[in-house]
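Progress against Task 2.4 (sequence-to-structure conversion) is shown through the following example record, which the project officer requested during the mid-term review.
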Amino acid sequence: ADKYEPNNQIIKYQIGVTLTLMGMYEKALDYFINYNLTDADSKFMAGLCYFNIGEYENAILFFNAYSKFITDSVESDLYRGLSFFKLEDYNSAAKYLKQAEKIDKENPDILFHLGLSYYPKFLSAIPFTPINGDRIFLNNSIENFSDFLKTISDYLTKQDISSHHFNFISKLQSQIMEKSGFLTRLGIQYHWYNNN
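Structure tokens generated for the chain above:
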């Protein structure tokens, strides 16, 4: 395709992406840089190629250029952080890895490079049942529920468990958990009814 439409920037970009996926980073760079591709994605891909051939200073330059277009990019911050790490600039590495972690708190790659655990996790749910209800059952009154949450939290810390997820819990349990310091994740469900 390249010889039939030599000025088509989209084709040049796609050839560069294909070469990157094939691990042919130097040839891919020829398409991302020498053909003057100025879009954000080309900047990111050039940074990725430089990262993969070990030219971390150049990788940082291109990830910086990309971040002028796209300010909240987990991937750009992650690779900038890893590039600084490879250059043994640990303060800059931590800065960008923490920036990436602020955007995506559950990305295993980011957490790994920050020295944090993503796994193991605990989950309290009813399989294949997206219906709200109680997920913690106690014999005592609801006042003891908060004390039980403290026990769960202490156990997670002691066992070095990264998190415990309670899926589709009741509103009452959710409110008590939030008051006890647990984070709340909100979601939307769509329900269709067949009225025929």
